[in-house]
Design goal:
Elements: H1 5-20, H2 28-33, H3 40-45, E1 54-67, E2 70-77, E3 95-100, E4 114-129, E5 132-146, H4 153-161
Parallel strand pairs: 3-5
Antiparallel strand pairs: 1-2, 1-4, 2-3, 4-5
Amino acid sequence: MKMPTLTRLGLMAALLVALAGCTAAISKPLRDQADETIGVRAVRENPPPYVGDTLIWGGDIIEITPFAGGTRVKVLQKPLDYRLEPRSVDVSEGRFLSVYEGFLDPEIFSPGRRVTVAGELTGIESLPLGETQYAYPVLKVREIHLWPPRPDPAVDDYYRWYPYHYPFRPWGYHPYWW
């Protein structure tokens, strides 16, 4: 039995959308070049052996500063999951800078958003942090991925516990009537 053309096109489109959702944040050739075992802490403690290496780090944006010819993004490192997405945990190896050759809009790449950065380690830059100097490892960005904003926890909890939103509830208004 032959499937109608429109149905085949719909199935192919659904398959492409499903496969697109499985892609990683950073391209495969760059992931193959990167050494995922090198962390921010190791680079801060002893930078010279790692200068020139391709690294993939991610975390929460702390500050973004456009300058002539580029943008500097200050990031609080977070561990990455299997998709290279920064995890929402209170664990970090420190902070790092990523320098992008081009303009990244501070309204889009805003503080609190999550990014994954793949780039070449160019060295350490010392900047003030409070009343001290902090040694930031600097990545020259080859690829950067901005993750969607996190959902509001209050809204997320509501939909987790009350999957049918008001006014439609098949069992009535009271949320505990099952």
